[in-house]
Amino acid sequence: MHSTRLISALPFWLSLGFAPLIAAGAAWGGWWLLLIPLYAFGLITILDFITGLNSANPQIDTPVSELFWYRLITLVWFPVQMALIFGALYWVTHTDHLRGFEVLALFYSIGIASGAVGIVYAHELMHQKSQLERWLADLLLASVLYSHFRSEHLRVHHLWVGTPRDPVTARYNEGFWRFFTRVLLACPRSAWRAEVALLARGGRSKWSASNPFWRYATLQVLFLALAWGIGGGIGVLLFLFQAFVAVLHLELTNYVEHYGLTRLHLGDGRYEHVLPRHSWNAAHRASNWLLINLQRHSDHHYKPDRRFPLLQTYDAGEAPQLPLGYPTMVVLAAFPPVWRRLMNPRVREWRRRFYPQVTDWSAYKSGSTPMPKGAR
Q1: Each residue of 218-241: pLDDT tens digit?
Q2: Which is nearest to 23 in space by CA: 95, 85, 65?
């Protein structure tokens, strides 16, 4: 039984494939550096076509003790990511083995890993009650200088997804680059307001030591100092570059997950409860292996505390379906005309299927429906 669980969990360890590929790129440069994006976006997409869709749902009452081999990959990734980032920083700043454009390509590849894997794992870990897992989430997010994502995700996104209060619900017809600029500016302020409001409800000041932003800032400064200690100014710039690439991939994913989907306004600032229909679902097997079932996003929002091996998938009658897995969808999202041509008809079909009673979508499109009651 123990070995059976290990075998069934092993496909979710695909993320470790980044480590030897990044090491090969650092060692040999040149065309080897193409292997990382080809692995992340090309090979996984090909495997999606080969392995097809996975519509099977696990038993949701499976005890945590039987999920060890699934959870272990999220626990060991932090030291792997640290070795990749800071090992590469040492390598490129203490040798002249790689040319300038190869160094940039290497750290772009590391940013893919720290974003497509590191932030995805941080997302899983931050939802858990274990202090170890929450600390690992904070460390992973600090390593890409995006610590406020934890506050924004838990205190805002999960409460107000599909409403004007949620900055990361992409609006209908909103191109990714406009969305990206908007969330980079809005989310830190939004996260701060949410934490300050929570502290105020407990009778504490925003300057209280309980404000997680002080922990976020300390961890981020420590990582920047480590980058400086290893590689000086160049080390800091390369660290910032991989962090930017990681955040770019996170926000591409955020954009895809809820594009054009809104919760019904019931009047007086009240919105319907979050349902599976308010997230795009994708049952593509291989990309769910790499992204630890993140594409079963409809169930994640419906049951946020459910661990990734137990997430359920839904058919088209319950949740809207993406035509391809995230690795392909995030690439298409970077090209707004292509994205709109592919996804806008699907959003309109979603409206007809789930909300035939709504005849005027203009306020939903512009994000001008009333702010949710109780939102801060």
Answers
A1: 999 999 999 999 999 999 999 999
A2: 85
In the numeric block, the tokens 């992204």 are attached to 291
- The per-residue DSSP string of 182-199 comes to HHHHHHHHHHHHHHHHHH
* SS3 call for 163: coil
Q: CA–CA separation, 169 vs 171, rounded Å?
A: 6
What confidence tens digit (pLDDT) does each residue in 63-97 have? 988 999 999 999 999 999 999 999 999 999 999 98
Q: In whole angstroms, give the CA distance from residue 175 to residue 240.
A: 25
Radius of gyration, CA atoms only, the chain: 21
DSSP track, 51-73: H-B------TT--GGGGHHHHHH
CA proximity to 232, closest of 100, 114, 90: 90
Kindly write down the DSSP assignment for every residue of 131-151, as one continuous string.
HHHHHHHHHHHHTTT-THHHH
Closest to 113 measured CA to CA, from 139, 77, 87:
77
Q: Please say whether the beta carbons of 185 and 261 come within 8 A.
A: no
Cβ neighbourhood burial of 198 (10 Å; 0-12, 13-18, 19+): middle
Q: What is the pLDDT of residues 258-309, one digit of tens each?
A: 999 999 999 999 999 999 999 999 999 999 999 999 999 999 998 898 999 9
Coil vs helix vs strand at 260: coil
Q: Give the number of C-alpha atoms closer than 13 A to the C-alpha of residue 344, restricted to the C-beta side.
A: 11
Entry pTM? 0.95
239: its two tokens: 């660290």
Which is nearest to 297 in space by CA: 317, 318, 323, 278? 278
Segment 331-339 shows an average pLDDT of 98
Residue with tokens 């997409």: 45
Q: For the CA atoms of 280, 322, 118, 197, what is the dihedral angle to 10 degrees?
A: -20
Per DSSP, the three-state class of 375 is coil
The residue type at 302:
Y
Express each pLDDT in 144-169 by its tens digit: 999 999 999 999 999 999 999 999 99
| Domain parsing of the chain, residue ranges | 2-366
